[in-house]
Recover the amino acids of this structure.
């Protein structure tokens, strides 16, 4: 109304999923009536909480489909990169 940009809404987060010592939270992002694959990977490393956010171009018809795919993508990232994901 006054020329400012609307504040970006925080994405809805899925339930936390533990995997190989990491915590995964799906965070699909709405775009054009669909949902993008996105999520958060976290782990306590040397007493510090580390976080990695990811977004992929894959889109899905529903939040639930995107959330399920996002958790699978996070597992793949963890399997390939482990703690290096936080570098």
């Amino acid at each position: 109304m006054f020329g400012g940009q609307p504040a970006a809404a925080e994405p809805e987060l899925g339930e936390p999923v533990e995997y190989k010592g990491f915590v995964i939270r799906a965070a699909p992002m709405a775009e054009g009536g669909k949902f993008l694959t996105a999520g958060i990977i976290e782990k306590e490393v040397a007493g510090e909480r580390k976080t990695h956010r990811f977004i992929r171009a894959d889109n899905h018809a529903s939040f639930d489909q995107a959330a399920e795919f996002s958790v699978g993508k996070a597992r793949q990232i963890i399997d390939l990169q482990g703690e290096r994901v936080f570098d």
